[in-house]
Backbone:
């Protein structure tokens, strides 16, 4: 009997990295999964984004746990496409309990000549994409009348000004702060429906978004390099550390936990 | 996915209650997992005779921990309800032992550092190590500001703030010796909001956050994590003992809404706080420190 046995989770950015880890971790504890990912490149993002093969691997790993998964390629910026993916998953899996707005990009590279384009893309994906993810799911959550749990993936950059000075970096910091505002608003407004809303704030996580040449260059060049260290003696955390926080937040163990900005950051923001 | 995630996955195959030997009726029908989430660890819990403290001891024991329990300071002249008793502490012992876990229970007052040190040292000597610290013991009185006597102020700060400090001071050397650990201080929504008619309690519970933030920085190099939990009203003898609050709010109804939860629930159960404590106590939160974890049905977001 798993900790989220019989629940259904809608996860964006599920092809790899944290999103795949969340899908697998929740499936280990008994959940079925609706997985969404763009599986395509965005022009201002300088590291390779996820592929259809990555999403297929997530499907394989969830199915290996004897759980069901409905996977669709969809762009969180495209609300109609996202709604179609969500609806297909709910129809097949029989409901919705958990929403993880995880998809995000980090176009921090100083090579982005068009600062405005990088800013626009990251805000579109990391903030409007989160808004779209919650918006497509809330009507079904409310209509079902059995409550629900939503976790929005912010960042330490949602609590501190650490994204750097590029258009993409400033946009990243702005979007991740904006996610906290969305969380607080939704938490207050959805409480009457027994729907809880929290944010998680990871420090650097061992994923393709962080472990790539572009990010390494950003970190090497950053004047803030000294400030970009964790309190606990660890450089980077693993995707499963974020998944374990999310598992707690979406399980009934946290049935009265809502409105929390939840750092999983090795003490980064406690400094 | 690292080994931690894989282990948790394997841990979901629980032993059926029918095969566990000891029949359990503690309101936790699943019984103890085959491989608990804090298996083999040792936790010290202050205020463990009843209420949240007992619930934490049981929840941690369900998931495989042995317990060092501290309580029974004797009644306060300033507090309108009785403190945990020896009989209640004995009941906690019985509950933990029914889960086939070991427990060392000591009658001690968190205001008395010498006694607390002795209780923790003795527990560690018997149980072999220390991993988890729950600084839970606390008292509460309700009154308007002008009815806060010097003794009420002193008793509340001594117990709820200095008592947490003493608990950490007694425990940290053992955590360092063991190569790390996790400390959880019980604060309150009153550690975040300025709840009226509770000024000494609010001051102490805010202070608990200060202690935790400071030690989170200072002890990280020892792999010691420090976090706070912030419950809204919990169904315990302490809260049941706060009879005067409704009457005071009745006279100043404009101050009533600050006590209300956003969720359609007035009070939560001790087990809800224990589940948060368990998560912070387990390796699932191995990189979480400096967190103020509200378990408050949205009380503080209003």
Residues:
């Amino acid at each position: 009997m798993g900790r989220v046995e019989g629940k259904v989770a809608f996860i964006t950015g599920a092809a790899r990295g944290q999103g795949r880890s969340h899908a697998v971790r929740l499936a280990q504890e008994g959940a079925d999964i609706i997985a969404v990912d763009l599986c395509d490149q965005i022009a201002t993002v300088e590291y390779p984004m996820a592929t259809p093969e990555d999403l297929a691997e997530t499907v394989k790993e969830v199915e290996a746990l004897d759980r069901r998964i409905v996977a669709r390629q969809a762009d969180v910026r495209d609300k109609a496409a996202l709604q179609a993916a969500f609806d297909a998953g709910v129809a097949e899996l029989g409901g919705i309990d958990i929403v993880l707005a995880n998809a995000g990009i980090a176009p921090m590279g100083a090579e982005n000549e068009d600062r405005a384009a990088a800013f626009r893309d990251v805000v579109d994906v990391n903030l409007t994409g989160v808004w779209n993810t919650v918006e497509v799911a809330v009507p079904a959550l409310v209509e079902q009348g059995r409550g629900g749990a939503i976790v929005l993936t912010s960042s330490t950059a949602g609590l501190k000004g650490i994204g750097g000075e590029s258009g993409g970096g400033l946009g990243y910091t702005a979007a991740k702060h904006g996610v906290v505002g969305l969380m607080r608003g939704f938490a207050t407004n959805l409480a009457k429906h027994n729907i809880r809303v929290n944010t998680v704030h990871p420090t650097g996580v061992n994923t393709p978004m962080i472990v790539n040449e572009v990010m390494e260059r950003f970190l090497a060049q950053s004047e803030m390099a000294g400030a970009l260290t964790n309190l606990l003696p660890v450089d980077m955390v693993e995707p499963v550390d974020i998944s374990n926080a999310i598992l707690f937040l979406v399980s009934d163990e946290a049935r009265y936990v809502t409105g929390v900005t939840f750092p999983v950051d090795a003490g980064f923001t406690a400094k | 996915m690292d080994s931690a995630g894989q282990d948790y996955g394997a841990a979901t195959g629980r032993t059926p209650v029918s095969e566990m030997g000891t029949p359990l009726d503690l309101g936790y029908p699943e019984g103890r997992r085959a491989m608990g989430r804090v298996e083999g660890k040792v936790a010290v819990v202050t205020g463990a005779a009843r209420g949240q403290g007992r619930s934490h001891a049981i929840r941690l024991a369900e998931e495989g921990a042995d317990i060092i329990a501290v309580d029974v300071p004797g009644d306060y002249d300033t507090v309108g309800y009785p403190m945990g008793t020896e009989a209640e502490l004995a009941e906690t012992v019985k509950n933990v032992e029914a889960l086939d876990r070991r427990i060392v229970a000591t009658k001690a007052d968190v205001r008395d550092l010498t006694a607390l040190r002795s209780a923790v040292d003795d527990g560690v000597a018997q149980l072999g190590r220390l991993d988890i610290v729950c600084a839970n013991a606390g008292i509460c009185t309700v009154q308007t500001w002008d009815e806060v006597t010097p003794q009420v102020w002193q008793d509340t700060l001594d117990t709820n703030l200095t008592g947490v400090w003493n608990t950490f001071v007694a425990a940290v050397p053992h955590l360092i010796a063991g190569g790390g650990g996790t400390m959880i201080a019980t604060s309150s929504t009153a550690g975040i909001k300025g709840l009226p008619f509770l000024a000494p309690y609010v001051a102490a519970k805010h202070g608990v956050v200060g202690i935790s933030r400071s030690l989170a920085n200072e002890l990280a190099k020892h792999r010691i994590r420090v976090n706070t939990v912030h419950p809204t009203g919990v169904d315990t003898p302490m809260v049941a003992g706060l009879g005067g609050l409704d009457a005071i709010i009745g006279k100043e109804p404009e101050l009533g809404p600050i006590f209300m939860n956003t969720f359609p629930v007035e009070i939560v159960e001790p087990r809800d706080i224990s589940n948060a404590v368990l998560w912070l106590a387990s390796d699932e939160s191995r990189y979480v420190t400096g967190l103020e974890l509200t378990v408050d049905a949205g009380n503080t977001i209003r």
In short: Chain A has seven helices and seven strands. The longest helix of chain A spans residues 115-144. The two ends of chain A are 39 Å apart (CA to CA). The mean pLDDT of chain A is 95.
